[in-house]
Amino acid sequence: MARRTTPTRADGRRVGLVTGGGTGLGIAIAAGLAQDGYDLVLASRSPQHLATGARTLRSRGARVLEVPTDVREPDQVERLFGRVRDELGRLDVLVNNAAGNFVARTEELTPNGWRAVVGIVLDGTFFCSRYAFPLLRESRFPSIVNIVASYAWMAGPGTAHSAAAKAGVVALTRALAVEWAPHGIRVNAVAPGPVRTEATDERLWTSERVRQAIVRTVPLGRFGQPAEIAEAVRFLISPAAGYVTGEVLAVDGGQWLGRGVMPLLETLERGRRPTSSARYARAGRRRGPRRTGRGR
Ligand code: NAP
User: Which domains does the chain have, with CATH numbers?
Assistant: First the structure.
């Protein structure tokens, strides 16, 4: 399929758009793009969040366009990308990071609570990808990164709404990776493990007791840092990942792989008791001569 020519801005700078880019991981991801010389578009509902994010990025020399947008609303999303075309003339990277989440027993979850989360995460990712497409296919090195979570493919008790929505985004990531590959658009996802942000401290792990329990589920034994998620996004949008599409990169300290794995190594930590293998070896040595004695 023929590729269109990239619209050239006078200075040739690339443009990246981060939804939810004014807070938490979004701001770290946007800062990572800024480090690579991208101009940035930040899109989320709250002008205050956008202003905070933009201030931080500008203090590091980035050029930033703030566009208040509710990603659940297709008309607003269409206008967002219209402004990107009109004011910046191009789009090279889209990071679908906006989300909402809270802990609820599913039998008590209201239909509105469900719709809100699925609307931001799944509908929002679709709307943004859909309206970004005409701009992305004009870029020389276009890429989408969706921020998901490992409970999309594991169990997410207490956050079934978010788990279901993120699982949908994983499916969308893979579908679009194949469907848009002929346009050169790579579509990948990053699944962060637990990373403390204002939002998680407020709505997910709200006490020290819960935070300690969370850390015990992570083989590397700590929370992640926002910058570690940003580095994964930088890799996926870079030429180094030019042959990577449809992938989900877990950046989680081994959390999802560690779950359900039998803690057999703990048996080695119980004092000096010989391990099973040492006892078998001794038993084998004892059996050896007896067998010989019977003439076998
Ligand atoms: P956060 O600070 O709450 O980020 C969510 C962002 O989404 C906010 O900036 C919010 O801005 C925006 N947003 C919410 N509803 C929106 C809407 N309808 N339209 C547009 N923007 C909307 O949380 P975070 O911890 O940084 O999480 C960032 C991403 O990482 C999320 O996708 C989350 O699921 C994922 N994640 C985080 C962790 C973690 O441990 N932190 C783990 C796994 C996955 P406004 O309020 O201004 O709209």
Answer: 15-260 (3.40.50.720)
